[in-house]
Amino acid sequence: MIPRHLLIGVAAMFAVVLGMSVYVWRMRGRVEQVEAPVVDTRTVAPPVSGPSEQVTLYVAYDEPGVLRAQTARIALPSGRQERAQELLRALLGMYLDKSSSHQLGPGAEIRDVYLVDPGLAVIDANAAFADTHRSGVLVEELTVASLVQTLAVNIPGITRVKILVDGKQREALAGHADLTGFYDVSAVNELASQMR
Amino acid sequence: MRWSSRPYSAGGFFFLVLFGIFTFIFLSFLYLESAEEKKISIYSSVANYTLSVTERNGQDYVGLFEILEPLGTANIKTDGLHWKLRYKTVAAEFTAGESRARVQGRNLDLPASFLLDNGRGLVPLACLSTLLPRFLATPVAFHETSRRLFIGNVAVHFTAQINKTNPPTLVMNFSSPVNPMIATEPGKLRMVFRQEPLVPPGSRTLTFDSAVMPSASFDESNGAAEIAVTGSAPLLASFSNDGRTITIAPAPNQAQAPVRTSNPPSTPAASPPPAQSASTAPAPAVERPVPYFAVVDASHGGEERGAALTDQLAEKDVTLALARRLRQELDAKGLNTLVLRDGDLTLSLDQRASLTNSVHPKIYISVHAASLGTGVRLYTALLPQGGGDRGPFLDWDTAQAGFRFASQSAEASLSAEFGNRQVPVRTLIAPLRPLNNIAAPAVAIEIAPPAGGISQLDSAAYQQLVAEAVAAGVAAARDKLGAVR
């Protein structure tokens, strides 16, 4: 015959095991309900090394609909192509700020800038840059003029600029500003002077 | 003639090699031409859509889940070679490599094996007319040779009638709005309907009592239906009745074809068509169609909504309303006007430019709307770097180059009229297609909300004010525009 205290002990252990199983089951369900944290898929640029320099950024202002030249000090690497990338990243950094005068959508980024001789610069923006851009002739051309003019003024020798989205040609930025052609820097300069 | 037994000379050998290369290139082109991607179009009361067809072992296959998913709740589960599909309450099981399937507990023999491709369940096209009714509980008609699948009683019918006006017009009425892709070639205008369940009329070939448009034919292939209208002159299609009517007519002034000499040398285009009365001179023996003075282009349309101005208000609706008002105002001033998009239709930028250039207007006006800022902004083209003109042919990307000063002059005239009406106005250049493709003076208008706010953007009073200012500006520039060549 099994002693009584042994039966009580086994029953108590069964009860504990059952209780822990229910507890673990409920905890697992709760973990599944918790939303996965939003992953920031943006590529992280390596820290820029180099002395900080004074550059001129052409900053768009939505409300009067103008483009203003603004000086800024940013750290720039020595390579021409890397300098171009850093310039545009600095410009986009301003537009991504919540208090920006010309806000771009979250996640907008310049993936790369390629300088191709003679005089061609290719700006490759990510999909969020175009997908989240506000639609309208003026608001889109402010962005385009700001990028092209900033690049042309700070990197000598650029005469035309092509804008790609995610490495591919796109018909328009957000339904208006044409991205199929090559921007003639002198024509954008004329636009920038109209926008002052 | 006798063949020479002389060995080939170096020149002859070189010729043979060249001939071989050309033959290879020609055959490659033929192969590429024939290797057009196969498609299947599915028409139902819920959605019309097109899917790609995969060819395996000489059979055409399509994804079953892709067909059913737009029609209702569907989910799949893959377990090794077994592929289980549930569509609403119907469960089915397929096994890769086997031609027997089970749908709702009943066996079904497929004409070829079921395939699994990266989790996609592919069924042979030939089984769709027997397989799909088991899921959908509705009749399915499958045009197998043209790969067009009709689920339920969906069909768009059409009638075609020739109007013996001068010039004659072919009016095609459709039972539902249509939005075909239109292409023109010498002697033909083709309309390809991929998203519409267009069905053939009684006869696939229609003949008309007209020398200009003697016949039209209906054909269907690769998931699309096509109506081809033959014509002895270049033809132009225009839409009306919210996309339910397509009117085909000879392109005005097509005789003066070269783009550089595009402006019709007839009577001043600004003049309204002469009214017939006893005192007027008799009409000439051959009447020319009345040329369009202005082309007004309501931007965006159809699937392309443009800017979302408010939660309810899309740019495409504001531009269409304003374009119609503008036509009314311009017509009232005796300036014959064509609205390019007179309905909720999708028109590509190239189509807009081609249509405009084919009618050789004195001015092209593109209409846009935005929520940013106030008043009106006027734009002329910021020209991209182009390839240069070749002889009488203008470079497509910079076709506007020769008309830039005329465009700026028209813009100044419009700007002055807005100023007279106390409407804030600004003039800029813009990289805005198709302004740069237009071989005529071209201006774009972007209307922003008045001082009253965004809710006033589609108000009749504000749009009327804008339309009147533009019409007055165009009328003021009429003489200058009429002289542009």
Mean pLDDT of chain A: 88
List the strand order in the largest sheet of chain B.
24-23-25-28-26-27
**Number of contiguous helices of chain B:** 8
Using the 3D structure, state the CATH architecture of the largest domain in chain B.
3-Layer(aba) Sandwich
The profile of the biggest β sheet of chain B is: 6 strands, mixed
Q: Outline the biggest β-sheet of chain A.
A: 4 strands, mixed
Provide a concise account of the structure shown.
The complex is a heterodimer of chains A (196) and B (485). With 196 residues, chain A is of the alpha+beta class.
Could you walk me through the main structural features you see in this protein, from its secondary elements to its overall organization?
The complex is a heterodimer of chains A (196) and B (485). Chain A has five helices and six strands, in the order αββαββααββα. With 196 residues, chain A is an alpha+beta fold. Chain A has two domains: 1-33; 52-194, no CATH class. In chain A, β3 and β4 form a beta hairpin. In chain A, α2 runs antiparallel to α4. In chain B, α4 packs across α7 (460-476) and α6 crosses α7. Chain B has a six-stranded mixed β-sheet, with helices on one face. Helix content of chain B is 22%, strand content 30%. In chain B, a hairpin with a 5-residue loop joins β14 and β15 (169-174). The longest helix of chain B is centred in the N-terminal third of the chain and has 25 residues, at 10-34. The A-B interface holds A 62-63, 65, 134-139, 141, 144, 160, 171-172, 174-178, 180-184, 187-188, 190-191, 194-195 and B 300, 304, 306-308, 315, 349, 368, 370-373, 377, 379, 382-385, 397, 426-433, 436, 444, 446.
Task: Spell out the key features of this protein.
heterodimer; A: 196 residues; alpha+beta; 2 domains; 4-stranded mixed sheet; two-stranded antiparallel sheet; elongated; B: 485 residues; Copper Amine Oxidase, Chain A, domain 1; Immunoglobulin-like; Aminopeptidase; 3 domains; 6-stranded mixed sheet; 5-stranded antiparallel sheet; 30% strand; disordered N terminus
